Amino acid sequence: MPEAAKPDVVRRAESMVRKDDKGGFPPQEQDPPGLTGRMDPIPDHGEETWVGRDRLTGLKALVTGADSGIGRAVAIAFAREGADVAISYLEAEQEDAEETARLVREAGRNAVLVPGDLVERETCEQVVTDAVEGLGGLDILVNNAGFHWARDGDALDGLTPETVERTLRTNFDAILWLCKAAAPHLGDGASIINTSSVQAYDPSTPLLDYAATKAAVNNLTVNLAAALGPRGIRVNAVAPGPVWTPLQPATRRAQDVEKFGAETPLGRAAQPSELAGAYVFLASPEEASYVSGTVIGVTGGRPVF
Ligand code: NAD
Ligand code: MG
């Protein structure tokens, strides 16, 4: 299409995506959980681009893993849409969490920091208690914290008791305990959004245990939607494809980062900013009033059925 004939919305979208992006990133590794400032390039969380349209005005959200990556993009978008945000993260991620909080406050909303390791059930309960206290209530729970390990070899060879335990407890057990603790605080119009993965549908062998936890998250999403629907609470999930976040250089081998995302039909990984729209839609009591028990894929074209 000639440049002059392009609608403004197409021009804006093109300016947000690296046009020369052929997939992959400079080879790099860091220790888990990973920090944003050590990534090359620094991910785009929508800092310069997300425009709020009052879709979540007055709502209160707890977002786990909100310090970085997809969680930070969701926190920024939620705040610009008018929501207050409690940011759950690991203590090692304090600098990332403070930056997310700064961006939420810059949007004129309340930000509450709730650190803690969610592999412990008691911590899940404490994080919800602290969020409810700090925000003065709760309308949205985004279960987004996650972990995988793909550095020690393929499939069964790469499994260690420590990393499998951490993967299962972070990606699955924590969601159960967070939902159980949050449910009594949620009312009509509230919602829960879980972060699943394309791995639930199209698993890759280095992520044997992780992929199974995400399939379990999908199952849990449907069942929780049935359990909480009668109380007017909607439960959904977002299944991202490859996204450029600290999780990747912190848990993959440097040479795998080099081609990360290149295998998708769109030929590149997403930036975290490209995920936020799905979460805002699902959280909106107006736009998604009849949407529950479903999974939205944001995968660059890989199948989610
Ligand atoms: P990220 O590293 O930015 O976010 C993950 C967050 O999880 C961390 O910031 C950390 O705060 C939190 N976390 C991990 N273990 C925790 C624990 N024990 N206690 C408390 N918090 C803990 O990476 P991301 O890619 O934005 O990950 C967000 C979600 O997206 C995860 O559930 C991940 O599985 C999912 N996901 C990511 C991709 C991808 O390509 N990046 C693809 C599909 C799904
Ligand atoms: Mg982080």
TrEMBL record:
One of its GO terms (molecular function) is oxidoreductase activity, acting on CH-OH group of donors. Keywords: Oxidoreductase. InterPro entries: NAD(P)-bd_dom_sf, Sc_DH/Rdtase_CS, SDR_fam. Gene3D superfamilies: NAD(P)-binding Rossmann-like Domain (3.40.50.720). Residues 1-23 have a biased composition (Basic and acidic residues). Residues 1-40 are annotated as: Disordered. Signal peptide: none annotated. It comes from the Bacteria. PANTHER family: NADPH-DEPENDENT ALDEHYDE REDUCTASE 1, CHLOROPLASTIC, NADPH-DEPENDENT ALDEHYDE REDUCTASE-LIKE PROTEIN, CHLOROPLASTIC-RELATED. Belongs to the short-chain dehydrogenases/reductases (SDR) family. This is NAD(P)-dependent dehydrogenase. It comes from Nocardioides gansuensis.
